Structure formats: structure tokens, C-alpha cells
Amino acid sequence: MPKLTIDGKQIEVQAGTTIIQAADKLGINIPRYCYHPALPVAGNCRICMVEVEKQPKLQIACYTPVAEGMVVKTNSPRAIEAHKSVLEFLLVNHPVDCPVCDQAGECKLQDYYMEHGQYNSRLVDVKVKKEKKAFSIGPTVMLDQERCILCTRCVRFADNITKTSEFGVFDRGDHSQLDVYPGRQLDNNYSGNVVDICPVGALTDKDFRFKCRVWYLEPTRSVCPGCSMGCNITVEWDKSRPHQNKKARVMRLKPRLNPDVNNYWMCDVGRYNYPFIDENRVLFPQYKGEPVSWDQAIGTVVQTINAVKKSARLDRIGVLASAQLTNEDLFAVRKFFKDTLKVSQVDFKVSEKPGHNDDFLLKADRNPNTAGAQVILGQGADANEIIQKATQGELDLLYVFGHDLVKLCGKETVEQISQKVKLLVFEGSNVNDTCGFAHVILPGAVYAEKDGTFTNCQQRVQRILPAFPPLGEAKVDWEILSLISEKLGTPIKYKKSQDIFKDIAKTIDAFSEMSYEKIADQGMTAKK
Amino acid sequence: MKELLPQMDKITSQYEQKKAALLPLLHLVQEKEGLISPESEKKIAEYLGIPVVHVHEVISFYHLFRQKPQGKCHFSVCQTTSCALRGGEEIIEHIQKRLGIKPGETTPDGKFSLGVVECLGACEIAPMMQCNKDYVGFLNKKKIDELIDKSAH
Amino acid sequence: MQKILTRHFDQADSHRLATYLKDKGYEGARKALTQMTPVQIIEEIKKSYLRGLGGAGFATGMKWGFIPKDNPKPKYLVVNADEGEPGTFKDKYILEQDPHALLEGIIITCYTIGSHKAYVYIRGEYLRSIQRLQGAIDEAYKQGFLGKGIMGTTFDLDVVIHQGAGAYICGEETALLESLEGKKGFPRLKPPFPAVVGLFGCPTVINNVETLACVAPIILNGSEWFFKLGYGNQGGNRIFCVSGHVNKPGIYELSAGTTLREIIYEHAGGIRDGRKLKAVIPGGISAPILTEKEIDVKMDFDSLKTAGTMAGSGGIIVMDDSTCMVWAAMVAARFFGHESCGQCSPCREGSGWVYRNVHRIYGGHGRPVDLANLPGIIGNIGGNTICAFGDAVTMSVGSYVAKFRSEFEYHVQEKKCNVVLNLQGVAS
User: Where exactly are the structural domains of chain B?
Assistant: First the structure.
């Protein structure tokens, strides 16, 4: 394994490693545009030039393999001059769009400009004009050809990752134009990723267009709840400017690197499915259509449960749990309903029609925690049977975690259930048609408001963090169950998510030896 | 393009990798049809098994390929140093005046079109141009006028 | 002086096989294939000091020696007939008037490097060259000089012409390979070099037309004969192309060691219209310009390198005292701006920017700070690019600014041209 020195720091790496990869390992940030770890090397931006001892010319770090004893200087006067000169060339024809460009604040031209400070422009001439400015190239992405620095990351992405080849660079010289094939749209399920990889504001997200300046955004690590893949994401939000964007908190989702799950990517289905975090939320507890306090709502539930306990007919309680819940929520369901109340009719496999899966990240199972639910709740009961019993009046309490039974069974059936069941409880984050029939509505939190874990289809347990507290009067699901259990007199006694997880690790074999520390930000595979 | 298939097959068979035949196939189609239409682009891409966007890239990169029709008589006039030293700029200006078109344009009757190009490798007959397939050199205003008058019929 | 490359040009039907056979045609190939080993041939070429006549001047024998012997992949010979370097037109003559000389050179070269397939990449505008070479190829196949088991040996060889499509950058060897493979002419990152990873990922030799046309004569007459015809470390003659303000523009085959003065005045008839010489480009537009004081230099690769310029493609462009050097710089910069492939940032943005700068100065809109900045901007392109095109922009355009700075200063200060008779060669 060759050993080399970069800026005075030594490192030993595998043969075949390039200088830029070795520098990244050392935390030395060589400027780069065209280089991307997940794409084939292009070597065309030329900004990653470094000084290599004994080589007369500067070498590009993205393409030059390391050698034993190599001595590299990334910030020698020569290297810095080269970086500056490349930056100057790229700015020659680049429009000064910063005031209206969404990329501002996360733009690599701005960033390196601030770092290398060729502050006085030597340009007097007219910039090259290109055909398409603020041009829609598909349902999700806007193109600005003048901002494009022709790094070809998007072309290489479309050729190698999605293999859909929408992009090309046409013409030549400084009239080169990036575009999609005439008449074609960028409409594959991974279109949003080209916005992530574009180092400048040439490809921007329509969904995010003019929405929020990025320096207002706070990032929170999470996992996409869109399907069982569990792509690692960052929820980017802003609470400081509620007068914009109709008080929405989440501005966008971005993929987070996890080489074992989604690498650098996420699909559009997941990426653009965040409005539900702020829109159409269940904001306060309700009883028979009227807003009530938590105490009152919980009181009503407890009343019904006590009645059932008295009759010793625990088969008259049915619970439709959900694979949208975190492991912690699910364990609270298990601890409260199954262990404490001894209710056996608990199932999460409420048969929603599966979506399609593509041959990349998107999975047909559109739940983030089916694997977790399987392990924590087991096979046990059958949701269809529970629903059947409800329609036939054989249940006193039907506890529904967020499902839209109207979509599943039709309005008439749910109407029947609401008439036949003594108490139909809906605990969920977003309003759906079932809410109109529920007797008690308990506002739940969305994933972005939770501290917990999901287990993906690879049996990987991954942590989600709360970006902000639940909206309105909503509470985290396990907290709600905790409050109910307390009122019942048989508290399940959890103060924070970590306590629940510790319990899970103690109780369930698949989770043994796990902890939040070990899961960290890349997750951990559960035992078989 | 179906009639061209035997020729396309013959050309492609000369290359160890099928997609290397792209440039010769584009020449073939352009020779036959006067330009390369979007339909031809797609058919060639299909035939060679390459994404059509990369065929379009190639057509847009190389100046001999065109997607718009040229005039019946197309002048490619050289503007590089050797021709410029011997009056190339005046030739270009004169043609523009005579035909009433700018470089890149075609006369409304479709008879003439003008392109300004870089060195054609005929500096010994400067100032020169390529008129359709032929190199024409030692140009002056009189020769240009004669050529235009002759070709106008 | 013995003519090698142009020896058949005056003959009627010089491009036909029948004519070629009359003058020891294909005997060099026969000798190589039947009496010599590849190792011996490489030795001969090395000792002849044949240098690449496309522009780089790389030692041809050494280049052939880079082909790895143990590599199981097929080998290729690619003939660079893209001839795009402004001022250069010699390969056109060889292709049109002595195509069999090229073919014979191809045969010997392919045999030497173990290649059974040669592609000749001819620039798209050279229609007669393509026609003539194809005719020669057809004749050669008929005669059994190409195809299966050529000349009664077990050596197979196919030659295919590949027509270019109008891009100067395809004269760069790796851009040529990309173009041959059906892509845009984007030069490749190096290493690996074509000798190891070339056409279709296989070991490839790329040689210029003129270089290959020297091969058969060297095999027939010996390396020493060829070496002695030249000068210094460059054997043989080369065809110099003279154009611009001379009385007799055209091709002139002369010893590599001929001086520029001799070429201009003794062969090309001196400066037209009784004018005075002002500047000369010695080796195609990429070569730094020389002033009239610098023309006693010998025209071989090493002498010109020492003189701070290059022999390049042998394209000599002569400028008399009616030429405004700022204008000439602008024309050169415009060429580079148009022909930049656009792949890498410094060249893509820089070539166009340099042209706009010089254009502005020429038009009288330059400020002193523009002239102060110009050398730095020009200098930032070369050395930082994927291929030598960037270096050519820097060296070429930079040389006008360096050697004729007073004219640039005049344009900036006076906002007009100081070349009084700025006739720009009014067409006669």
C-alpha cells in the first residue's frame, strides 16, 4: 500500500487511489467541480491541479494515482495560482445571477471565489450568451445554460447511474451548451439528483425555486419514510421565517451519503414527498368532531379500555398498527397493547396496494419500517380479520394508527365500523377520510418530528432525528401510548426514545448489541 | 433510410466496434438527403445501439454535419491567416454584398449559402474557398462574380 | 538534393499503381515483409532519425518501440491525415499524387508493430484525397498488396479510410481516436498513452501521412542514407509548405536543415510586390512567430526549439510589412477560439476570451490595463489543459504580444493601427 505525503501529512492508501481521494481521507479539501466520487472521472474542470514533487507540470488530483513516496502540495503558490486562473476562466462567461440564483450559499463558484479571492475581475468583454435560461427541462428541473460550467456531472450521471442518457453537451468551444436531447424531458425517477450534483445553479430544483435562501436552512439527519429502502436523507427546514411559504417548516429533502444503502442518491418519489410534514396535519385532539384537550381525549380512551378490561373480553380490542411507525413507537404498541393489556389482535399488515419498484432504489413496499414491525410485533393477528370483526360489531375498541380505512375498505364499511364499534380511535399525523368517522382523533407526529429508528428492507436499523417538535398539539406516538398507559394506571414508563431502544435491545434478539451510539449516522445491520 | 441499409451494413462491418461507424454513417445519410434530420438521427442511434443524445452531440460538434439544408451552391470561405493575408476578408465581404446574406445564411431562393470556415489546407492557392465539393483558389472579386453568375443558373 | 516525398509528383497519373510500380514500387514493403524482422525494422527507422512530421517531431522508431509485445490485444495503425494546422497542405499532395507511397509505408509499419488493421483518418474536406487514396487502396487489394496474405506472405492487412467532419482538434492524436470511435473529438486524459491504450482500448501507433511516406524509401535505401540527407538529430527531407506574402506559395521538399531564409527567398520567390519581410510563422499557426531578424534559423525540430519556436507541421506563413501584427494575432486567436473543443475550462473559456480581448485592442477599444493583463490571461491557458491545444494558444498568441508589443501599445494608446498600408493583401 503506497505511502504518500500531502501538505506535510502522511497517509497510506490502497494502490490505485487518486490524489484527490487520498486528500479527502486526510480531510484536505482540494477544490473540484467535475470530480464526483460516484461518477467516472472526467478531468475537465482542471481546478483540482496540485503540485507533485519531481513533476514539472501541475497534475490534476482527480485522475493522478498515488505512488510510494509521492509528495503533493495542494496549496503551494503554483497550485493556488492555477486554482485562481481556472476560477477566473469559469467566471468569464458566467452570469452574475447570484441575487436570483437558488444555488447562492451552496455554490462552488462562490465558495472557491471566497477562498481564493480573485476579487478584481479582469473581464471587460461581453459574456457569451446561451440559448436557454430559466428553461424547464422536465417536471422537476430548471436549466440555465449560461450558468453551466460544463463539468458534465449530469451527463455522466444520466449515462452511468440512471442509464437514461437525457443530457448532452452540444456544439463546441465556449459556445458549448448543456441540454437534454431536443424534445426529450428529464423525467426519470432520479431527476432530482442532478440538482444535487450540479456544483452551480445551472440545474435547479423547480420545487425549491425561489423558496428559501439556503443559509436559513437547518439540516437534520433522517431517513426517508417513502419506502422500505430507507434512503438516508437530510431534512432541511427553516422556522425563522413563517411569513414565507405559508408557515411550512420543511423546505426540501436532500439525500445523505450512505454507501451501504443509497450511496449519494434518492428517488423523486421520496424527495418530493415532504409537504405532508407541514400540510394537512391533525393538529389537536378531537372527540366526536369537537376539539378537546389531551386529558379529555385520553380520558375517553381510558374509559373504553377500562370497560373492556372489566368485561374481560380483551378480544374486543383491535389494533391496526403501522409500518410507518418507528421501532420505538412499535415497541410501545407491543408493550402497551400486547404485554400490558394482553391484547392479541394487533397487526400492522394493513393491506395497502404496493407501489412498483424500479431497479434502483424505490421499493414496492411503501413503508419505512416493515422489517421493524415484523420483528417487534410478529406475525400474530390478521388486519383483515380485525377489520372484519369491526364491521360486524365484535369490537368495542378499534385503534387505528394513521391508516385511511376509507381508501382501503370504502366509505360504507368505515361508516358501518364507526356505528358498530364503541370507540373508533384514529391516532395519526395527517388528516384523511377516516378522520371523519373516528370518534377520537389523537394528533401524532410525523417522522421528521421523531427521535427513533427504522429498519429497512436490508434489515438495517437506521436513526432518524427530530428536526423540530411536533406541530400544533401533536405528540410522538409512543408518548401518546405512554400517557394512556399512565392514566390507566399501568404505565409503560418511557422518558425518551433511547430508553425504549435500550429495552428493545434487551428484549429482541435481532436488536441485541445495538445502541444509538453504534447506529450513529450510517445505521447497523440487525442480527438474523 | 431503409435503402441505405446494405451500405450501412457494409460500412459498419469495417469497424471492430459498431459505434465507430457513426461518422461514416452520418456522412452517408447527409450525402443522400442533404442534411441529417431528427428522424435519421434516431434511426442511426437505434441502428448503432447508442443513446440518440450522443448522436446529436456528434452532429452539433462537427462543422461538416448539418441539420438545415444548404444552398444549391454552398461557399465555405477560409478566414484563417494565410487566406486572410491574401485578401480573404475582402472576399467574404464581397460575397456577402453580392448575395445579400451573412455567414450562416442561405439566399431566399435557396441557390446560395455562405459559411466562413478555418483553414482548409489549401493555403498555396489563397485566398480560397470550398464551393460544394471543389476547392477554388486565387479568388478575387471578379472570380467571385463569375462564379456566382455561372452558378445562378 | 535528392527528392523522396515529391519524386513522383510531376509524373502523369502519379497516383496510379502502374506508375508507382515503375519506380521500385512496393519493393520496400516486400523487403521488409520477407527479409526483415520487426526488431530490425525498428532499428533501421531509429537509426534514420525519422521524426514525426505531423508536428510533434517525436522519434518514429522510438514510438513504434512503445507497442507492448506481450499484449494479447490487436494492434492498430492510425494514419493522421487530418491536416488541419493552418499553413499546412503537404499531406494533401501525398494523398492525391502519391497515395501508394503512403500505402507502402502503412504496410511496413503495420508489419513492424504487428497490426493487421490500419485506419486512415482524412479530414472531411479533402474529398479528392479520399477519392485518390481509396482508388489506390482498391488497386492494392486487387494486386494482393492488401488483404489476406499480402505479397505471398502470411501477413494479413486491411486499410480503411475514415472521413473526418470538420474539427481541427481531431488532429490531436487522442481526439482523433475518439473521433474514430464515433464520438466528439475530445482529447483523452493521458496517461495511458495510445501505444498502450489506443483505438478501442488496444495498443495503437498514430503516424502522420508524410512520416509514413518516408518509411519505404528508408527500408530500400537504408537509414544512413536518410539520416545524411537531414540535419542534426533529424534525418531526411521534409515538405515545407509556404504561403502568405511570397511570390511562389506552394510545397517545397528540402533537407530538414534548410534555413528559413533560404526557403523564403531562394525557393518561394521572396516577398511579393517588392515588399519587406516582417514576420514568419515557421511551423503552422501553433508555432510562435519569428521576426524578420530570426530567419537564419535551420528548420529542423531541435534548431527551432532552441530558437523558442517549433518546426511543427512545416507550415510556413510569411507576413510582409503591410501586416498589422495585432490583426494577425487576432486572426490566430479567432482560429483557436473557433476550434477549441470546449472540454476543459481554461481552453474553452480562455480561447474565446483571448480572442475578444485582442479583437477589442485591434479595434481601438483597448485600455492600457487590458494590454497589461493580456500576457497573464494568455499564459494561464497553457500548461493547465488536457491537451496541447491550450499550450498552442499560449505559445502562439503570446508570441505576437511578446515580439510586437509596440504595435499593441500603439493600438491601445492611439486607438488605431500604425501599419500605414494596412492593405491586408487586397485581392489582386
Answer: 2-61, 73-151
B31 touches chain C (CB under 8 A): no
pLDDT band at A109 (very low <50, low <70, confident <90, very high): very high
Mutation target to probe the B interface, by most B beta carbons within 10 A, among A156, A170, A171, A185 is A170
When mean pLDDT is compared across A239-243, A344-348, B32-36, C242-246, the lowest value belongs to: A239-243
Do C257 and C341 reside in the same domain of the chain?
Answer: no
Regarding the domain delimited by A108-277, which CATH topology (the fold level of the hierarchy) does it fall under?
Alpha-Beta Plaits (3.30.70)
Residue A121 has a pLDDT of: 87
CATH number for the domain whose boundaries are B73-151:
3.40.30.10
User: Distance between terminal CA atoms of chain A?
Assistant: 35
pLDDT of residue C420: 55
Q: Are residues C72 and C113 in the same domain?
A: yes
Residue C166 located in a structural domain: yes
**Which residues in chain B are contacts of A182 at CB distance < 8 A?**
38, 56
CATH classification of the domain holding C314: 3.10.20.600
| CA–CA min distance C76, chain B (Å) | 11
Q: Would C80 be classed as within a structural domain?
A: yes
- Please report the beta strands in C115-235, taking only residues with DSSP state E, as ranges in sequence order: 115-122, 158-163, 204-208
How buried is B3 (Cβ within 10 angstroms: 0-12 exposed, 13-18 middle, 19+ buried)?
A: exposed
Q: What is the distance of C-alpha A153 from the center of its chain?
A: 22
Q: In the predicted model, what is the mean pLDDT of chain A?
A: 96
A159:B52 CB<8 A: no
CB C263 within 8 A of CB C242: yes
Tell me which chain C residues have a C-beta less than 8 angstroms from the C-beta of A45. Answer: 344-345
Nearest to C384 among A82, A93, A126 (CB): A82
**Res C155 pLDDT > 50:** yes
Domain A286-525 has CATH 3.40.50.740: yes
Q: Which chain B residues are closer than 8 Å to A180 by Cβ?
A: 53
Chains touching B, CB cut-off 8 Å, 3+ pairs: A, C
Residue B54: its chain A contacts at CB < 8 A? 165, 168
C201 part of a folded domain: yes
Residue C316 belongs to what domain range?
Answer: 237-283+308-320
| pLDDT band at residue A527 using 50, 70 and 90 as cut-offs | confident
The mean per-residue pLDDT over the stretch C244-272 comes to 98
Class of domain B2-61: mainly alpha
pLDDT at C423 exceeding the cut of 70 = no
pLDDT at C424 over 70: no
Domain ranges of chain A: 3-92, 108-277, 286-525
The answer to whether residues C270 and C20 touch, using CB atoms and an 8 Å cutoff, is no
Q: Specify the pairing of strand A9-12 against strand A290-291.
A: unpaired
Its CATH class, for the domain covering A3-92, is alpha beta
Is some CB atom of chain A closer than 8 A to the CB atom of C138?
no
Q: pLDDT at position C98, please?
A: 98
- C-beta atoms of C331 and B19 within 8 A: no
Average pLDDT over residues A160-180: 97
Residue C410 host element (H or E): helix C405-414
Q: What is the ipTM of this complex?
A: 0.97
Per the structure, how many domains does chain C have? 3
Position B133 confidence tier, pLDDT thresholds 50, 70, 90: very high
Asked if C386 and A43 count as a contact pair (C-beta separation under 8 A), the reply is yes
**Chain B nearest-CA residue for A179:** B53
CA distance B98 to A258: 66
